[in-house]
């Protein structure tokens, strides 16, 4: 049971850091309404010939923006999530297929 407890603790820590990361992203991008994280298959990575993040991002915005600004937001999200996965490898499993939306109060 010690192994299961250690795994649970790692996942809980990764989930907490993921939550902090997502809140920070929404705080920095007021026009970001939500984003979805797609898993890139190994085939996609091999085909591109480049080392890339293991995921792709699709964003939803609260208002229209230029394609350059949309690209900046996607890059920022990708960089932040990449840093998170580097420091918390368990976060990768928590990201795949997830949709994150802004919470309105």
In short:
This protein has 105 residues and is an alpha+beta fold. The chain is built from four helices and three strands, in the order H-E-H-E-H-H-E.
Describe it.
- By secondary structure, the chain is an alpha+beta fold.
- It has one domain (2-101).
- Helix content is 57%, strand content 17%.
- It is built from four helices and three strands; from the N terminus they run H-E-H-E-H-H-E.
- It has helices at 2-28, 42-48, 67-87, 91-95, and strands at residues 32-39, 55-61, 99-101.
- It has a three-stranded antiparallel sheet, with helices on one face.
- Helix 1 (2-28) runs antiparallel to helix 3 (67-87).
- The longest helix is centred in the first third of the chain and has 27 residues, at 2-28.
- It is elongated.
- The termini are far apart.
- 15% of the residues are buried.
- The mean pLDDT is 85.
Write the layout of secondary structure elements.
Elements lengths: L1 H27 L3 E8 L2 H7 L6 E7 L5 H21 L3 H5 L3 E3 L4
Antiparallel strand pairs: 1-2, 1-3
């Amino acid at each position: 049971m010690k192994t299961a407890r250690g795994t649970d603790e790692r996942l809980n820590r990764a989930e907490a850091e993921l939550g902090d990361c997502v809140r920070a992203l929404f705080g920095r991008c007021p026009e970001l309404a939500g984003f979805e994280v797609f898993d890139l298959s190994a085939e996609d990575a091999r085909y591109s010939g480049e080392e890339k993040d293991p995921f792709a991002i699709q964003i939803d915005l609260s208002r229209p923006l230029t394609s350059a600004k949309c690209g900046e937001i996607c890059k920022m999200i990708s960089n932040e999530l990449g840093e998170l996965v580097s420091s918390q490898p368990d976060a990768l499993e928590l990201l795949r297929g997830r949709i994150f939306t802004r919470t309105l109060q």
